[in-house]
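Hi C.,

You asked whether I'd gotten around to modeling the 79-residue construct. I have! Everything is below, sequence then structure, no commentary in between.
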Amino acid sequence: MNKYFNFEVYTSDPITKTTGWEITTLSVKAESKQEAKEKLKDYPNFDVIILYNFFHEEEESSNFLQTQNYPKFKILKRL
């Protein structure tokens, strides 16, 4: 099982680079919350962290998981 840390983040517009463009919920594979924060910088068009949600364990190998947290946790996309 791999540890994932779930965050709500803003991304930048990929064309204009306008910040605060879209809100995305991501889980980042890491050993610690601090390491996950650093790895977020590698996510395409990452802008800023809005909030940290929780950590979870998954039998996944992707570095990033786009998720839906409400009404029920679900992995939408693996990156």
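If it helps when you're writing up: The mean pLDDT is 96.

Thanks,
B.
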